[in-house]
Amino acid sequence: MQKVEGKKIPLSERAWVKELKFTIKRIKQSPLSIAGIIIIAFFTIIAIFAPYIAPPPPGRDPYMIPRYGYKPIPQPPSKDHPFGLTEGQYDIFYGVIWGTRTAFRVGLWVVGASLLIGIIVGGISAYYGGIIDEIMMRFTDIIFAFPGLILAMALVTALGRGLDNVMLALVLVGWPSYARVVRGEFLRVKQEDFVEAAKAIGCSDLRIIVRHILPNAIYPVLIMASLDIGSIVIIAAALSFLGLGAPLGYADWGQMIALSRNWIVGPPTNPLLYWYTYIIPGFFLFLFVLGWNLLGDAFRDILDPMIRRR
Amino acid sequence: MRNYVIRRLLLAIPTLIGLTLLIFSLTQLFDPVERASLYIRDPRQARNVEGIIEKYGLNDPLYVQYARWLGALLEGNLGWSKSANMKVLDAIFTFFPATLELVMFSVPLTVIIGIYLGRLSALHKDRFLDHLTRVIAIVGWSLPSFWLGIVLMAVVYGQTGLFPPGRLSVDASNFVHSPNFIRYTGVNTIDAILNGQWWIFFDALQHIVLPTITLTTINVALIMRVMRSSMLESLSKTYVLAARAKGLDEKEVINKHATRTALIPVITLAGILFASLLSGVVITETVFNYTGLGYWAAHAATQLDFPAVLGFALFSGILFLGANLVVDILYAYIDPRIRLT
């Protein structure tokens, strides 16, 4: 990135803008990523308009699914309850609509926070090197020594149950992978001439990191983040399914599937009698994750330096 | 090679220490009164919480407590699991064979299907078969394991009565735990063969079908994706060109020259997959009431059985670390470039 006669480089000429334009062009050529975008757009609309699609009862926490009675036995879809009532008479339609918000919140928060911590720690570690770098790398080694879900489960057990603690645990387990990637990119960019030049003219460390290195190092990790959202939402839902995450009656797809566990196999005459209790929330979860994964898979192909620009 | 192995082993030591430190710091998230409750076996003791804290040194400086905890760990004392009603270490050994059995069936299947689909995809790059296999893989990867398990159970078991959940049917379970049956390994299918009891073998096999399908469907994308890109890379190498140039049959070129080298990263990944599943298939085991390590850990977590969860996490970490070590060393053995850098 050279500066011409002290003038700022126009936005359209900057490396990262070009990169972004190229990505968007490639997305448009790939039917799979378009399908992914449509799915995510569909869920975004549901999440935004949740209060209109499924109006919460006034004066109550909108994330708690309203219940219509206390009988355990699920009730099939009807006019008042288009997707039926699950165990404990919780409204499935209401649950899946507001569950969309929960899924977005979990996915975006966890990935966003992991990304932020990863960038800060990875960046500092690579820029300053030495003992800081060594400590950071050993620490990430330790986190990587565990299978992710198991460490997250142990953390939630220690921190206490609840969706917030699930999110916290997933951030604690997740940030080291971002830190590693950011570190690698920083080390690469650090050696470029323009960083040397910035140092030579006396820029502060903070300015060099934020203005010169970061914009050139952040791209791969952003892609990684988009790839992660789907699996983060699955893991969070799985922890809720196990009973470690969202509390009973909370609008969370994993928790709703957990409510169906006693009704998987119906009476011998009609084993699929209670299909709506697990098929509907599960399908929402699956579709949401599929949308992000389709998008992420397309990104990966577009950005893989080995196969791109051919 | 020897130098590489020694260096790699030495590098694992700080990680191992860090692993114990991390688990220890998790125990410290509980205040001394909560930790004291772990030692209470009798309601009358509850009046003397202070005494228990004193006795077990729960207010001592952290490094003293860590040293004591590590000492107990080295003696194999991981505490008492109230959910399993036995020592944590004993519980791990009790539940491990079931998980091993499940992994023994599903990982080879995942690897074989993944390699086959990945190769197919690469050989038909950007054509219909490539797109189809990739869509199948992404769909499989996006399926939540607990949902897939539930749907399989509802549709297959619910409709046909075949492939029930659990690990053994009641009759088989009674027989397995009777003195007429010697449990050599704890892995039911193997023990059944060793005892010559084929009906136990088929009973165990029936129970393992659905969990195996679930695990395979979800993990196959992982292997497939790596196989595809590694195959594409090896197809573009000059030795493949050379093999073609000297007039070899295309089949020969693909099977002998391209596929073989493409397998190296896949084997590594298969090793890591094996290790991560072996250290606990929490969700799948829970859905199918398959009483392995993961099932036990999940139940322990919901029953606030902290020693069990932390002991299980520690065990998983050590197993995973060890498996990664073995994979790294094997990799260096296969590929000399790694051990020389």
Provide a descriptive summary of the structure in words.
The complex is a heterodimer of chains A (310) and B (341). By secondary structure, chain A is mostly helical. Chain A contains 12 helices and 2 strands, in the order αααββααααααααα. Chain A has a two-stranded antiparallel ribbon. In chain A, strand 1 and strand 2 (90-91) form a beta hairpin. The longest helix of chain A has 37 residues, at 92-128. The radius of gyration of chain A is 23 Å and the shape is elongated. Chain A starts with 14 loop residues before the first helix and ends in a 7-residue tail after the last helix. Chain B is mainly alpha-helical. Chain B folds into 2 domains: 2-77, no CATH class; 86-340, MetI-like (MetI-like fold, Orthogonal Bundle). A two-stranded antiparallel sheet of chain B has the order 1-2. Chain B is globular, with a radius of gyration of 24 Å. In chain B, helix 6 packs across helix 10, helix 7 crosses helix 10 and helix 9 crosses helix 10. At the A-B interface, helix 5, helix 6, helix 10 and helix 12 of A face helix 1, helix 6, helix 7, helix 10 and helix 13 of B.
